[in-house]
Amino acid sequence: xxxxxxxxxxxxxxxxxxxxxxxxxxxxxxxxxxxxxxxxxxxxxxxxxxxxxxxxxxxxxxxxxxxxxxxxxxxxxxxxxxxxxxxxxxxxxxxxxxxxxx
Amino acid sequence: xxxxxxxxxxxxxxxxxxxxxxxxxxxxxxxxxxxxxxxxxxxxxxxxxxxxxxxxxxxxxxxxxxxxxxxxxxxxxxxxxxxxxxxxxxxxxxxxxxxxxxxxxxxxxxxxxxxxxxxxxxxxxxxxxxxxxxxxxxxxxxxxxxxxxxxxxxxxxxxxxxxxxxxxxxxxxxxxxxxxxxxxxxxxxxxxxxxxxxxxxxxxxxxxxxxxxxxxxxxxxxxxxxxxxxxxxxxxxxxxxxxxxxxxxxxxxxxxxxxxxxxxxxxxxx
Amino acid sequence: xxxxxxxxxxxxxxxxxxxxxxxxxxxxxxxxxxxxxxxxxxxxxxxxxxxxxxxxxxxxxxxxxxxxxxxxxxxxxxxxxxxxxxxxxxxxxxxxxxxxxxxxxxxxxx
Lengths: 102, 270, 110
Prior knowledge:
Helix content of chain A: over 70%
CATH superfamily of chain C: Cytochrome c-like domain
Strand content of chain C: under 5%
CATH topology of chain C: Cytochrome Bc1 Complex, Chain D, domain 2
Number of domains of chain C: 1
Oligomer: heterotrimer
CATH class of chain C: Mainly Alpha
Largest sheet of chain A: none
Distance between the termini of chain A: 80 Å
Mean pLDDT of chain C: 87
Strand content of chain A: under 5%
Number of strands of chain C: 0
Shape of chain A: elongated
């Protein structure tokens, strides 16, 4: 029994320290970063539905004090936002290849 | 460039037509002729129903009582009503047989004018409020005008000033978009005639001829740009505003690709 | 008593993982319209309303003796063919790496 309690305490400490590294400011900053890349993709008419959804979910999680969840969601939002911007850059190079030749 | 080709280019420019859109169109049409040797190009105005015999029969049966009929009637009433200053849509569009000339490039405003934009221009010139592009009234008016224009052949051109808008529409059409990474051309050229689940993908040639469309999925009549939004979202891309510059440019390109085809709107679709 | 309850609680995840095999979980992801949605384009034995856009998913071990090659195709098919119409499941984050592994497990069994 004592060992179990020790194990649980350890898990609790781990969870707490991890949460401690995150704070509202850093997660908010991450959300803002995702938003700015998403806006850039939108200005290039290459924005994705999933990014907008992840940003909304991250904001809701943050408002609900679910810091770890907000962190994870905003990280994913940032990655999809970056992928959408790089899609637009890549397409500038290759779209002409699809025009049927006359 | 030889003197002869230089002369030819100058001649075409003077005539208001551009060589590139026309050679683009011919190659585009030839693409579908080669892909579907048994389907007349003009048959593609029926979209996926030109490529799937089974769904075509169901659709023809449905067209016996077209679900857009009331919309055309309601649109005719709106079309005939007078503005506060006593003028009306007839002063802008005559009897309504005008859709074949849209969209066109307006040199003064340096922008593509679609039928919907022209409807609002007509209203504004008489001091009326513009209609919402996602509203019912503009779809009904467009339905009546489409009906009044039936069988007319698409007759637009790309003047030198409109080339940039045409090119922008062309680039949009051929660029991959969305998380699923499809361009319009992937689905409606490369995959046309194939099935996604049970749905046959239509060919792009002829796609613009039959709008607005009563879509059973929507349970109402809606404009081409609503379908653009739907296409965008189906590939995981964010849709744009109806009548945004990007969508108007895309409509301009697509309509030029269907130049010479007969108008057959409004139509019904699943 | 408390000890037994706690122990069973701790072991619960293990039973859960055993309840459905990787192949079954991969199948569920492959069929989910918001995840793999593979059947939208590929014929799969026993699948309902499968598409005709892409090659049927049969004899995968024969077609891909090297399973990592199949994984690369799922991750980003445009590497091998720039005009492929297959969504880049990994590069575009449509599926997580773990989900790709599960789908791979399933597809490779076909």
